[in-house]
Amino acid sequence: MNDAPDLARDQPWHRLIAARPALAWHAMDGLCLDDVPLAGIAARHATPTWVYSAATLRSRMAALQGEFAAQGLTPAIRYAIKANDHLAILSLLRAGGAGADVTSAGEFARAAAAGIDPAAMVYSGVGKRAEEIIQAIEAGIGQINVESAEELAMIAALARARDRTAPVALRINPDVAAGGHDKISTGRATDKFGIAYQDTAALYRHAATLAGLRPVGFSTHIGSQIFEIASYEAAYTRILALIDELNAAGTPVTMFDLGGGFGIPYDDGIGFPLPAYAAMVRRILAGRDLGIVIEPGRWLVAPAGILLARVTLTKATEADDFVILDAGMNDLLRPALYDAVHGIVPVGAVEASGWPRACEVVGPVCESSDRFGRYDLPPLAPGALVAVLDAGAYGAAMSSTYNGRPLAAQVLIDRGQPHVIRMRQSIEQLWRDEIIPPA
């Protein structure tokens, strides 16, 4: 494809696009994803619309496997489906060799519907209901990550009552702070997740005495949007000390679930140092016969998706210039929830040739928090298209119909062909399942 003549300009949107291999400019068609013009998708399917790159999903899955293979490691990959639970996404990752990390009966059923064997699933979460545990045990779940002594006792009782044995890993809270935001840090002593480090060895020994349980090892997850591997190494080193202690005392530990949380750059910065992380894992595991599990979510799917939106209108005030999109916090909640900032780029070649000016990009929802952030963008008139980048994770999965706004369509580009993988919700479908009691 031919680059647009202005690509050499050092504008923020050009740098963002240059950092993303799936995106490219075309002199006539504007911004393309996997060589498919996004303007054409908007013309056919309207906006807002989620658009995903199957090629990016495949390449990131292969890169993840390749970096570990280079270190002589073959971790079991259990994709955290909360990031994006669409059946088409799950099916692509399953075909690439991923299992699933699930947190509810709904996620379990989705993963199974996508063809993922329950034996290749990890069941996580602090609030598993009894019926969810029963479902998992009876289906032959590969691993249940246990979050407390109370949950361990419940799992044992449910398994015994059915004459089954549940494979369990104790999730350790190593009291290590990590993550890009307070609300996505999960490994501190004050977080709700996991078992206190000092209690874990004794609880594991106790689990080994309980009928109905097969303790296999430990798991941890210290947060999300992590870029420094030092936090991982600190947490893993503490847990490996427990594993060594238990193995030396004759209580076997055969598996270590390393969790996930690998960060992605939402700007044009440097990504997670995956080669260094894999090398660190090999180094600290040296001399131990441990199976390993990893639970990536965002790292796999976020760069594969964009949210395609249209400018509804612009609004100039004494305080600021506002660009109002037809996509808002009902579609992409992360900016309102976490103060997250996604890159935004123009789709049209004409707009992309303009010079930047500061503006506030906001959505249409009647909430002050419905804002994407402050950006340097070219002049955007009503009707102009923009792409909100790296929206493949925690985008559609978190979306809602707040303010009576239907769920957006979803399109997957696979080998140059766009496929609708979810139709846009109609207005009438908003109340389809509501029931008015008789007067």
UniProtKB/TrEMBL annotation:
Cofactor(s) of this protein: pyridoxal 5'-phosphate
Pathway(s) annotated for this protein in UniProt: Amino-acid biosynthesis; L-lysine biosynthesis via DAP pathway; L-lysine from DL-2,6-diaminopimelate: step 1/1
Binding site for substrate: 298, 334, 338, 367, 394
Signal peptide stretch: none
Superkingdom per UniProt: Bacteria
Pfam families: Orn_Arg_deC_N (PF02784)
GO biological process: lysine biosynthetic process via diaminopimelate
Ranges of residues in domain Orn/DAP/Arg decarboxylase 2 N-terminal: 57-302
Swiss-Prot/TrEMBL keywords: Amino-acid biosynthesis, Decarboxylase, Lyase, Lysine biosynthesis, Pyridoxal phosphate
Catalysed reactions, as listed in the record: meso-2,6-diaminopimelate + H(+) = L-lysine + CO2
Enzyme Commission code(s) on record: 4.1.1.20
Chain positions recorded as pyridoxal 5'-phosphate binding sites: 261, 295-298, 394
Listed InterPro entries: Ala_racemase/Decarboxylase_C, DAP_deCOOHase_LysA, De-COase2_N, De-COase2_pyr-phos_BS, Orn/DAP/Arg_de-COase, PLP-binding_barrel
Keyword Amino-acid biosynthesis: yes
Family the UniProt entry places it in: Belongs to the Orn/Lys/Arg decarboxylase class-II family. LysA subfamily.
Subunit structure: Homodimer.
Name under which the protein is recorded: Diaminopimelate decarboxylase
Originating organism: Acidiphilium rubrum
Underlying gene: lysA
